[in-house]
């Protein structure tokens, strides 16, 4: 090792992993210089406006375009009949179903796409859309998924009514989509039969919406002369979308370019392919003109991918001391009118089988039944991997229910059931191999930081005080997430494996361009990927440019969702860097006239062992690699491509604690304190991690405390604008206290696990557990989300607590 001050100076100059480097991408955004889809302007561009159904279920008797076509600026009105000649009136979904691009003879949910009006400007398009006359015949509506499979239930999907299966096994009713099972039912049933204690609770994860700042949209431009299609669009997975578009259109995939550009948030909402995209593309193919389609906010909340809507039953079997011996979790999943739920082919219920959480539960069984209803389709992974939030919410709520039943403290019940550090790698009763963890240490660190015993004493005193004007609740969540989709042996979409990629090109002077198959939507990829390369190659992060989102430039990848960027593409980045480093070592050995074994790596250079003055820096090697002074038979340059198919998922975990005060007379819930400890393995940029945790916790707060997409009995949306749908501002958002432990992932090249979704996944049950804990001494075991002041006030009234 050279002079320590010199080594430290060189290391600091790299700004590699572990450095809180300011985000490189922010400079353009704070100057208003981002380029979003709606900023794209092309010559001759037309604008599309969608005509949507006011009914949740109705037959289309006729569509009259005459008045719309006569409106100034209107060029065309497209309906399903216009798409049929090119066979694009229906499209495949990412859930293995098919979905109407424009309603074909029937609408199945309110706000379904019926027609698109094309006009010379946006205002003319919307004026024309208002003039399209559609004659509907209303049909009975199913909003409650529990009624979807009744004998006399109306058939929602007449197009597939006779199909025995729609991609995921046998169906038992025309409104049934699939039944998925995991675990060992017989073993779980036996554990319940022998159990000293059992608990059961019905728990709803209500329908919510990710509601990103930017709505969905695209600009489709088809060049009739070259047959080349370019689509600028709001997508989290450009390459997968390109493949889907090739399958839909018949255009060779080599002639389709999808450009993601800058995206104003995704949170899972921008993974699917929506009808508006497809109609805009068809319109451009037919007209030869660019077509722009941009959603309104109400359109976005009403029709694009929702999340959750899981109606669950949780059961635990345990000893009288609270040691869990068996688990049975079932769910009725409301998928809306089409199964466009984003899921791996082999995992129609996503990763719900992570529902044993951080606990060593020997016998477990889970079942999910999915059904059609007259609601918008979706089921996206709102800031989580597929269905992980539902799974974690269920187990964390049930651990609290069990603690109440056996009279054990809610922290202690978790201690008694944790997978112990020495048990890793630990295979759950559902077959997932948790590669690493230190659950006890994480919980103890949190309990000590907040003085947990002191909080419980304060709570006891509050409960004993007849003059107290508020109830105090303490919530705990000790969760394990499953991310990094993922191993192709487990995960695919439409048959495409979920590997990812990185291509690195090093210039003679040491500048680097890295192109990746992921798609940033605010995660800071340009910074964190550069830091990985900086550490691996000894070249400054400031000299490294990261490019994503353009399928003509980036190697194939599955995009950014499910917290997979660092676990999968981050690994590909490290592997591509190491290929270059291996070649650089050969060049250094040749230039220094020593064998490779005589060299050792130090920060940014290869040096001769025992003679540190003889060395070649990486920048020097970059230049040499473009000359003739390289080993015989070696090609010039330092370039590499890596495709990474992970051997396993990654399993970040955390321990959260929330303290709330509930006003007895108004139901208002004040979050007094929220302490979040996360373990995401190796930490690449602590500041970006902190930002991601703050964002995830804020969205968790929104879901737990206010978000819900409600419908009336006729299938009408009654909360699809920002006047009704809760998005917390700085005024409502609590203060976050964050902490961490580091347990590296043993199979990941840099030991990273992913972090952006963990605070959302763990935060939601922590908030709920805190609110419900405030009522636990009154016999309350569960309250469904959202915990709005009105809903909490209603509970207070039922219990007679709100009497002055």
**CATH architectural label of the largest domain:** 2-Layer Sandwich
Straight-line distance between termini: 73 Å
The level-1 CATH class of the largest domain: Alpha Beta
- The tally of structural domains comes to 3
Q: Taking all residues together, what is the mean pLDDT?
A: 96
Task: Characterize the biggest β-sheet.
Answer: 7 strands, mixed
CATH topology of the largest domain: Aldehyde Oxidoreductase, domain 4
Q: Runs with pLDDT <50, length 5+?
A: none
Rg, nearest Å: 28 Å
Query: Rough shape?
Result: globular
Q: What do you see in this structure?
A:
It is a single chain. The protein is α+β, with helices and mostly antiparallel strands and 804 residues long. It folds into three domains: 4-32 and 500-644, Aldehyde Oxidoreductase, domain 4 (2-Layer Sandwich); 37-140 and 215-263 and 270-303, Aldehyde Oxidoreductase, domain 3; 306-485 and 649-799, Aldehyde oxidase/xanthine dehydrogenase, molybdopterin binding domain (Aldehyde Oxidoreductase, domain 4). The protein contains 19 helices and 32 strands. The strands form nine sheets. It has a seven-stranded mixed sheet, sandwiched between helices. The protein has a five-stranded mixed sheet with strand order 9-17-16-15-10, with helices on both faces. Strand 31, helix 17 and strand 32 (737-740) form a beta-alpha-beta unit. It is globular and about 85 Å long. The N and C termini lie far apart (73 Å). The model has no long low-confidence stretch (mean pLDDT 96).
